[in-house]
Automatic annotation (TrEMBL):
Belongs to the binding-protein-dependent transport system permease family. The lineage of its organism: Bacteria, Bacillati, Bacillota, Bacilli, Bacillales. It comes from Cohnella zeiphila. This is Carbohydrate ABC transporter permease. It holds the Pfam family BPD_transp_1. CDD domains: TM_PBP2 (cd06261).
Length: 276
């Protein structure tokens, strides 16, 4: 009986912790987004005297010539292009690293793992992008996002791919399949669980990215959703109701994506870890 009570206590503590860490901040954002500018300045959890969420939404969307709509377009394009390149490049690299066994393989694995440890260098990256004429371009930012997500995605793909028997490769080669045809026809369709995991996790990370667009994709026309937060706060005045309305709007897409694909994320990561 004591063990059961202990288990119930742990579960209750976990639920309470999740409520404090997730639901309370979300409630604060929602309540503040409903308030007027005067009420929002109090920064309290009180329910607004008059709900004006819809008016705040219209003000945020119309602000600075509908900048938020342009930001959603830029963030969506960045996310889709980065994911497409990331899935193809990382899956192919993981396939080579997992199947290839020679003296260079441990060194390649070391450098890939180092990508998770060594922090990115902002100034040298800007210099490189500027030299190849990709600074302030969507292509350059996509390359940065792919490079930063490369180590994590390769490790997931490689762990999952270790469970695919080599006999499949050998049988395909005997049937006359070349390297690219073998991978895209036979191997890649088997990677759907881990691919779904990578798409969801990286989509949320890229869509919510603040630092990389700020440094590598500056300009009002290149704004992404996270950078629109600058519109409503400054050194002298802050429109808290509009700021939190903006936060609410840009939080909804990744939150919905994460909720609907949560099971796929857990299944893909656990399957990869067990099979690897």
């Amino acid at each position: 009986m004591s063990r059961r009570l202990r288990k119930v206590g742990i579960e209750a503590a976990a639920v309470l912790a999740s409520a404090v860490l997730f639901w309370v901040p979300l409630y604060f954002v929602l309540v503040t987004a409903m308030k007027s500018a005067k009420e929002a300045s109090d920064m309290s959890l009180k329910w607004p005297a008059k709900i004006q969420l819809w008016q705040n939404i219209k003000d945020v969307v119309a602000f600075r010539d509908h900048m938020l709509l342009r930001a959603f377009w830029n963030s969506s394009a960045l996310t889709v292009l980065s994911l497409a390149a990331m899935v193809v490049v990382c899956s192919m690299a993981a396939f080579v690293m997992q199947r290839r066994k020679d003296k260079a393989t441990p060194w390649i694995s070391f450098f890939v793992l180092a990508g998770l440890i060594i922090p990115p260098a902002i100034v040298p990256t800007i210099w490189v992008l500027d030299e190849i004429h990709l600074f302030k371009t969507m292509t350059g930012l996509v390359l940065v996002e792919v490079a930063l997500g490369f180590p994590f995605c390769v490790m997931l793909y490689r762990g999952f791919m270790a469970a695919i028997p080599r006999d499949i490769d050998e049988a395909a080669v005997v049937d006359g399949y070349g390297g690219y045809r073998l991978f895209f026809t036979i191997i890649f369709p088997l990677l759907k669980p881990v691919t779904a995991t990578i798409i969801v996790t990286q989509a949320v990370a890229i869509f919510n990215d603040f630092t990389n667009p700020l440094y590598f994709f500056p300009g009002s026309k290149n704004v992404t959703v996270q950078l629109t937060l600058y519109n409503f706060t400054s050194q002298f005045i802050s429109q808290w109701n509009l700021l939190f309305t903006d936060i609410l709007l840009i939080t909804i897409p990744p939150l919905v994506l994460f909720i609907f694909f949560n099971k796929k994320i857990v299944a893909g990561m656990t399957t990869g870890s067990v099979k690897g």
